[in-house]
Amino acid sequence: MKSDNNSLTIISLGWLGLKLYKYIIKNSTHNFHKVSGSYFHTPKNIENEYRFDINAMKELPSEVLNSDIIFFNLPPSRIDSIQVVREFLNRVKDKKVIFISSTSVYGQEGDLDETTLPRPKTKNGIFLLEIENYIKNNIEDYIIIRPGGLYDNTRHPIYHLSDKESNMGTEEVINLISGKDLIDIIMKSMDRKNITINAINENHPNKREFYQELSTRIRIAPPKFCSNHTGVKRIIKTTHSDFRVKSNLFELSENL
Asked: Is pTM, for the whole model, over 0.90?
């Protein structure tokens, strides 16, 4: 599906959704007829925004009904039940659905890609996989994107780990992707159909070594590693050569 003359709505305008909205508005190479986005509590002061609570859904907002593409990016914490999502998806079957899932659908260790059967272990991972499967079985035109850990120059795991005790395993590796790289993947995928993409940086340094080095570079206290357990070594990859990312993980600048 080409973006020219299509309309897109973003559900919802969180960290990633707002980045996507601003990118599309700024970059005239993607000529959407209209771009809108939903918020839950607080308006974002942008054009074509609307309030939408999927858990209190009666009638779909006109912005959803009149959009060709639904970018669905609600975190599990904002959704009461899988039935709520199913009901929403049943109402947008005639549209292209881009669903942002997560690499948390992989609970197992080893080298993992889109051909690997996910075995989630967390509540969020199980919930996201349920949504993925429902989309695959019920939506005619979909894209499922599974980002790794997201970061930019203001949001990064290191800021939460700094100077705190961490049980990070000695064998664990990094599975991250920058907001900029993820936006690039989303935009490149727009004209694809019925595809699942692991959105992940192909660089997978040892977690402890990476965060120690990054702490030194940005001059903050490193995490306090308090355990010698090995942890789960999980290396997530993509089989899609045109969606591979190899940017510098130590570069935190963001230029969308």
From this structure: yes
Q: Give the pLDDT band (50/70/90) at residue 28.
A: low
Radius of gyration over every alpha carbon of the chain, rounded to an integer in angstroms = 19
**CA nearest neighbour of 99 among 204, 194, 172, 170:** 194
Backbone torsions φ then ψ of 47, nearest 5 degrees: -70, 145
Beta strands in 140-222 (DSSP E): 142-147, 149-151, 165-166, 176-178, 195-199
Residues linked to residue 38 through DSSP beta bridges, in sequence order: 50
To the nearest 10 degrees (0 to 180), the angle between helices 82-91 and 123-138 is 20
Per-residue tokens: 58: 């009666």
pLDDT digits (tens, 9 = 90+) for 116-153: 999 999 999 999 999 999 999 999 999 999 999 999 99
**How wide is the angle at C-alpha 75 spanned by C-alphas 179 and 152, nearest 5°?**
20
